[in-house]
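Course assignment 3, question 2. Fill in each field.
Student: A.L.
Task: Predict the tertiary structure for the chain below.
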Amino acid sequence: MRGLAVNGNPATKQQLHEMFHTLYELKRRGLTADNVEGFRLKYSSGSESDIKLIGGKHIELKNVNYNSADLNQQTIDQVCGPTGAFSVIQKMDDFEWVNYHIRDGSLDNLRTKWQNVFKNEVAEDGYTSTQIFNRIWNNDDLKASLFDNAVKSLAEVEFHTMINNKSSDIYAFIYKL
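Answer field:
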């Protein structure tokens, strides 16, 4: 029924925004049922993406103004957590994180926020840089696509070089409209 959530209750403003952005993204990309595997599908045991394309690409849509807000833990979990995208995708091209408010801000600002996540060394503040590196390192496909070196200690140095360069492949999942 129009205006109702899946559970039959009236849709919240956030649910309506998500629905609008999902429909907008489908139209913007010219996607049809032939291109889309599903919506709100899990890419691991806990995390899910808003749109999954046939072929495996996961698209996560965000409608948060990150110019004035920090990345919240749920958002960070979807990317860097134990069941996040970095744990399961084969290459960075398999995941897109699309923020609609970026039109009002800068891609550099968003990359800086993610850079702060990737550089964190204080466990009480969230996942540490080492934990994020290990998630990628334990994902053989993503590891092979990101790192030239199969020696863990050298790859970890490469990881830190990547997070210091906001134009590196580690930031390729951040999608700008």
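Instructor remarks: The first helix runs from residue 13 to 29. The first strand starts at residue 36 and ends at 42.
Grade: pending
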